[in-house]
Design goal:
Blueprint (H helix, E strand, L loop, with lengths): L3 H11 L2 H21 L3 H10 L8 H10 L6 H5 L5 H11 L6 H8 L10 H12 L8 H10 L1 H18 L6 H18 L3
Helix pairs in contact: 1-3, 2-3, 2-8, 3-7, 3-8, 6-7, 7-8, 8-10, 9-10, 10-11
The structure holds fe (ii) ion (FE2) (2 copies).
């Protein structure tokens, strides 16, 4: 596997400057959340820096790269190709950057839509993407504070923001987002009942 510095050099060349800055901030934010919530810090650092490694691909190039890597694309992803950068990013992290750790790859794969039964690392990357210091939208400060106090409650609020945003734009909800939110609510309920 490439080390963190080698990955940085490649991403600095390939990503647009704003995307590269975002990736570094997601990585830093993920490390802080990992420290707070007892998650492996190196996994958080790597998943954070690589989470958008396929984000510079657009339109035809994105679909071509997905096809070349044997990625199957759902109808909703076909209609909103930007979603593909997450599963494609996981594939490129494995094949181009040599990441073999399935937990890191899963966190990259799930970072845009969320998913049912997210691991603590998945949750941290999903949240870090929403709250890194370059993000500005109504409610982001509340989300930043909650991320320090209650990881699950913060992920729930992030799902709610994401779903509201999609609905406001008249867009299609990805089933993983709906399943992810339902699964998280059930997990929180089970925790409250002392399971
Ligand atoms: Fe992304
Ligand atoms: Fe991102």
């Amino acid at each position: 596997m490439m080390d963190y510095q080698e990955i940085l050099v490649i991403l600095a060349k390939e990503l647009r400057p704003a995307r590269f800055r975002h990736s570094r901030e997601v990585s830093r934010t993920a490390v802080r959340l990992a420290e707070r919530w007892g998650v492996d810090i190196e996994k958080a650092r790597l998943a954070g820096i690589l989470h958008d490694c396929a984000r510079n691909l657009k339109g035809k190039d994105l679909l071509q790269c997905a096809a070349a890597n044997g990625l199957s694309i759902s109808e909703i992803e076909m209609l909103q190709p930007a979603l593909i950068h997450a599963p494609l990013g996981a594939l490129l992290a494995e094949r181009r950057f040599g990441v073999a750790d399935p937990e890191i790859l899963q966190a990259i794969r799930r970072h845009t839509t969320g998913a049912a039964q997210m691991s603590p690392l998945d949750k941290i990357i999903y949240l870090a993407d929403c709250i890194e210091p370059g993000r500005h939208y109504p409610g982001v400060d509340e989300l930043r504070e909650l991320a320090q106090q209650d990881l699950n409650a913060a992920v729930l609020l992030a799902y709610d923001h994401s779903i509201s945003f999609v609905l406001a734009g008249g867009g299609l909800l990805h089933p993983n987002t709906v399943e992810g939110r339902n699964s998280l609510l059930l997990e929180m309920k089970a925790n409250r009942n002392g399971k």
